[in-house]
């Protein structure tokens, strides 16, 4: 048995182990089909493995798109990307080609192929990658193509990397200028970075770096060569950052602090670096959609460093929070159109408004400027004393706010609080407390003003409501007056019922104390008056309705003895039930008097009745007519006619 | 005993009156120098007029009249003179024009208290009629031509039927009183004039049988029922003697009914004859 055991240990066990590994990492599968990555959509072919449910490209990769029909018709956006992945990381030689071509449609057969000349722009990028980072020489070129010939190079960059770190000298050029620079082995900018303009033989800009630290900038202008010192040659404390937008903001501050008119963002150096970064970013997006990479070049530089301790960091966060709240309150008050109206009639409100303006001007706006640096993440790169002195040249504003040109009563304002702060601006605790003070002040003023605004709004609502109530009442009374002159006794009683309900509702409203409840009640009274108006209109149309029903129930009969056609009322029991039971019943209910809730129900009842009687005219009704005989109870009559009674429902 | 007594009297009376009639007849056949007008006789007529629709175009004209005549012993209402059944099938040509053709059975009662003849004799007629309505404002005018072929006989025992033709024209108006048109609840006044001429072998000198001048007032209860009442003066030559004119004053009470038993769906086009 022993030899067999050995065989198992030496051969089969390692084989099983390898098999186990194989199954754990998953089997390689081939993807072939449509793919979208980094904003490009086309056909892709690549192998991938599945690890923990994720598909990871692994092996040679090809993705492309081109459309001859589109090219011939108008233009074609094409691309072709090729390279390889190693377990999700782009590795080895990669080549990118993309752009947009149009054709003049002239074709030529060469050998066994059709040849068509194209014009447009083509991007070419190629180089090596190691574990997703550029490694070795990378070239990026944008060329303008005219009839399949390169007519102009619009952009070109050649940078060497060592595992993502730029090395040695590099060159970036566009159609108007070119930049030549150098890195140390550790990736820091070093020596003179020179920008040449295509039109001048002398350098347009010289940036002097020493081990990543920018000492000075020389710029050739019309008035000659200008030198701008930046950080100097030595710094007590510095830190490493990437030469990007943030670095340029830092530069901008330092240069402006020297009262210089130079704008780093307008300089050719920046524009070339920016252009380069934009091209690299498009490739980086593509890699990140498919796997993992760190394709963006990191041009390392050094900046001064003024770190915040943990207490200061907390205080800064407090200031930020207070500022956000205070700023929101301040903006909402200053932009409130109702408040804008209120201050014209209310001197106290005007006073508070002025305080808010002052708070905005002295507290909120400087804080906003200060926090902009924090937002840009460059606060720790700027010297505190200079920065704070720039923002608060006279120190932090005092708690007591003085208002100029106001009467003695409204000349100053101070919020009563336990918070206090020194006016020395370079201390973060002072800034944080000031921000808290501003926030609390604004909150308290806002509460007061909001209360007034609510009161004012309520008053306004009462005025509007009263106006509407008067208008509705007047309309109702006029309607009833005009109807009364020709009304029957029952109709007159009904109209008096409406007037009585109107009067009761208005009296109850008038006797209420001004409050939210009164406002609510007033709204229901308004609705009641509207409903009563509608009811009055309906009652006013009652005679027309009766006439219409009478006409509907006429039958034309030829009388042989007079040789004339004469109208005869048919289905008299139905019309009698309407005239003698339903209408008097409705009028009695309105005269009762009608309640506000019932008004619309009665309108509906009369509408339903008319509709139903019109329907019944053409229906077979002999049974119904028999049942209606001698029936005098209105609810029974309504039920027989199939009309829903609002009174019956209420009673139920 | 009493029955016998009465019968004897009747036979005696009949004999005497027949003799006297013969004597008078001899004298009356001679035309007088001047027209003689008999004293007017009072009469009361209760007439029903039925117009029963049987199809879109046809109707049944059904009239029953009860005619009373005053006698010496029965003034005012008088005693029954005729029961008159007039029937026809009418054809509605249009709303304004219709024609009828039918027969009449009239039961004549002998109202002559002195007569010894039969008390009841039938009279037969064939009649046809053409009626045309004409609106003028709110008033309606009606022209009626009625032609009758008439077989009559006297009350005398074994009297022969005599045949005559009657030629009748009537002009009638109906004027609504409390309305501008005829509809239920309307009162109307209806003056009418009818001239009845006759011809035939027995008619020697008395072609004008009757001239009737009537005015009635009517009330339309509903399109199918109307009532009316009025007074008629009539005069005409006696058949025996053209120089002697009868005169009558007749109170007339009418009921007009026009039921339509057809189903509703068939009724619908009834008023639109020309559609």
What does this structure look like?
The complex is a heterodimer of chains A (652) and B (275). Chain A has 652 residues and is an alpha+beta fold. Chain A has 17 helices and 22 strands. In chain A, strand 14 and strand 15 (213-221) form a beta hairpin. Chain B is built from 2 helices and 12 strands; from the N terminus they run αββββββββββββα. Chain B has an 11-stranded mixed beta barrel. The N and C termini of chain B lie far apart (73 Å). The model of chain B is unreliable at 1-7 and 12-27 (pLDDT under 50). The chains are: A alpha+beta (652), B mainly beta (275). At the A-B interface, strand 21 and strand 22 of A face loops of B.
Can you count the helices of chain B?
2
The unreliable regions of chain B are: 1-7, 12-27
Largest β-sheet summary of chain A: 16 strands, antiparallel
Oligomer: heterodimer
The percent range for strand residues of chain A is 25-35%
Structural class given helices, strands, pairing of chain B? Answer: mainly beta
- Low-pLDDT stretches of chain A are none
The 3D shape of chain A can be described as flat
Main structural class of chain A:
alpha+beta
Which chain pair shows the most residues in contact? A-B, 13 and 25 residues
Largest sheet of chain B: 11 strands, mixed, barrel
Q: Find the count of extended strands of chain B (DSSP E, 2+ residues).
A: 12
Instruction: Give the distance, in angstroms, between the N- and C-terminal Cα atoms of chain A.
Output: 99 Å
Q: Rg of chain B, please?
A: 21 Å
The string of secondary-structure elements of chain B, in order, is: HEEEEEEEEEEEEH
Count, helices of chain A = 17
Mean pLDDT of chain A: 82
Distance between the termini of chain B: 73 Å
Helical proportion of chain A, percent range: 40-55%
Mean pLDDT of chain B: 86
Estimated share of beta-strand residues of chain B? over 45%
Q: Would you summarize the structure shown here?
A:
The complex is a heterodimer of chains A (652) and B (275). Chain A is α+β, with helices and mostly antiparallel strands.
């Amino acid at each position: 048995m022993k030899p067999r055991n050995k065989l198992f240990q030496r051969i089969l066990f390692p084989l099983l182990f390898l098999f186990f590994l194989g199954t754990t990492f998953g089997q390689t599968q081939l993807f072939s089909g449509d793919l979208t990555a980094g904003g490009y959509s086309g056909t892709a072919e690549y192998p991938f493995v599945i690890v923990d449910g994720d598909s990871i490209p692994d092996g040679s990769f090809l993705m492309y798109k081109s459309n001859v029909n589109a090219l011939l018709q108008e233009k074609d956006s094409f691309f072709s990307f090729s390279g390889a992945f190693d377990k999700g990381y782009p590795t080895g030689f990669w080549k990118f080609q993309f752009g947009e071509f149009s054709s003049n449609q002239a074709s030529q057969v060469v050998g066994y192929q059709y040849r068509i000349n194209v014009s447009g722009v083509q991007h070419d990028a190629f180089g090596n990658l190691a574990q997703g980072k550029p490694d070795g020489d990378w070239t990026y070129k944008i060329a303008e193509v005219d009839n399949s010939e390169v007519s102009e190079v619009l952009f070109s960059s050649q940078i060497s990397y060592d595992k993502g770190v730029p090395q040695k000298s590099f060159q970036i050029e566009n159609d108007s200028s070119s930049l030549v620079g150098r890195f140390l082995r550790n990736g820091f900018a070093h020596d003179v970075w020179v920008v040449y303009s295509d039109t001048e033989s002398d350098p347009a800009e010289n940036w002097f770096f020493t081990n990543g630290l920018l000492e000075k900038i020389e710029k050739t202008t019309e008035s000659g060569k200008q030198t701008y010192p930046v950080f100097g040659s030595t710094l007590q404390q510095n830190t490493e950052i990437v030469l990007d937008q943030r670095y340029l903001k830092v530069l901008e501050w330092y240069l402006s602090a020297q009262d210089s008119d130079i704008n780093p963002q307008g300089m050719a150096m920046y524009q070339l670096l920016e252009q380069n970064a934009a091209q690299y970013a498009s490739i980086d997006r593509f890699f990140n959609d498919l796997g993992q990479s760190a394709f963006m070049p990191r041009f390392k530089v050094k900046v001064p460093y003024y770190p915040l301790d943990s207490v200061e960091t907390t205080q800064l966060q407090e200031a930020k929070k207070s500022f956000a709240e205070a700023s929101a309150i301040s903006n909402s008050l200053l932009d409130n159109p109702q408040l804008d109206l209120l201050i014209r009639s209310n001197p106290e409100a005007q006073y508070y408004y002025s305080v808010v303006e002052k708070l905005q001007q002295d507290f909120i706006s400087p804080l906003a400027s200060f926090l902009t640096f924090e937002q840009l993440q460059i606060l720790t790169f700027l010297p505190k004393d200079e920065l704070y002195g720039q923002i608060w040249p006279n120190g932090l504003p005092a708690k007591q706010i003085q208002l100029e040109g106001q009467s003695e009563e409204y000349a100053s304002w101070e919020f009563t609080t336990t918070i206090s702060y020194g006016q020395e601006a370079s201390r973060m605790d002072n800034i944080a407390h000031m921000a808290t003070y501003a926030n609390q002040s604004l909150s308290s003023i806002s509460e007061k003003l909001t209360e007034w605004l609510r009161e004012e709004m309520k008053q306004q609502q009462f005025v509007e409501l009263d106006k509407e109530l008067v208008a509705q009442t007047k309309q109702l009374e006029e309607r009833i007056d005009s109807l009364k002159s020709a009304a029957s006794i029952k109709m007159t009683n009904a109209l008096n019922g409406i007037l009585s309900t109107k009067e009761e509702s208005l009296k109850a409203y008038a006797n209420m104390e001004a409050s939210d409840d009164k406002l609510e009640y007033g709204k229901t009274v308004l609705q009641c008056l509207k409903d009563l108006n509608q009811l009055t209109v309906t009652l006013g149309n009652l005679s027309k309705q009766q006439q219409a029903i009478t006409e509907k129930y006429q039958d034309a009969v030829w009388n042989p003895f007079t040789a004339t056609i004469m109208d005869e009322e048919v289905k008299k029991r139905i019309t009698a039930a309407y005239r003698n039971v339903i209408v008097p019943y409705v009028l009695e209910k309105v005269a009762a008097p009608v309640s506000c809730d019932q008004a619309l129900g009665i309108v509906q009842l009369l509408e339903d009745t008319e509709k139903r009687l019109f329907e019944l005219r053409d229906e077979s009704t002999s049974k119904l007519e028999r049942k209606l005989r001698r029936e005098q109870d209105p609810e029974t009559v309504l039920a027989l006619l199939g009309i829903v009674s609002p009174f019956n429902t209420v009673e139920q | 005993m009493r029955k016998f007594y009465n019968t004897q009297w009747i036979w005696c009376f009949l004999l005497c009156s027949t003799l006297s009639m013969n004597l008078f007849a001899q004298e009356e056949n001679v035309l007088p120098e001047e027209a003689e007008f008999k004293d007017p006789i009072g009469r009361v007529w209760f007439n029903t007029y039925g117009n029963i629709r049987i199809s879109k175009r046809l109707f049944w004209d059904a009239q029953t009249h009860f005619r009373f005549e005053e006698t010496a012993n029965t003034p005012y209402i008088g005693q029954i003179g005729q029961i008159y059944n007039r029937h026809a099938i009418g054809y509605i040509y249009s709303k304004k024009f219709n024609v009828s053709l039918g027969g009449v059975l009239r039961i004549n009662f002998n109202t002559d208290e002195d007569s010894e003849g039969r008390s009841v004799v039938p009279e037969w007629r064939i009649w046809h009629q053409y009626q045309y309505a004409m609106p003028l404002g709110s008033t309606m005018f009606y022209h009626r031509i009625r032609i009758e072929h008439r077989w009559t006989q006297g009350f005398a025992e074994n009297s022969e039927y005599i045949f005559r033709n009657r030629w009748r024209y009537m002009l009638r108006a109906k004027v609504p009183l409390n309305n501008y048109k005829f509809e239920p609840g309307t009162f109307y006044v209806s003056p009418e004039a009818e001239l009845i001429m006759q011809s035939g072998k027995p008619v020697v000198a008395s072609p004008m049988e009757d001239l009737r001048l009537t005015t009635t007032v009517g009330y339309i209860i509903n399109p199918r029922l109307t009532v009316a009442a009025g007074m008629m003066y009539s005069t005409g030559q006696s058949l025996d003697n053209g120089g002697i004119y009868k005169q009558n004053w007749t109170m007339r009470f009418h009921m007009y009914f026009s039921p339509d038993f057809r189903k509703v769906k068939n009724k619908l086009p009834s008023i639109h004859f020309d559609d």
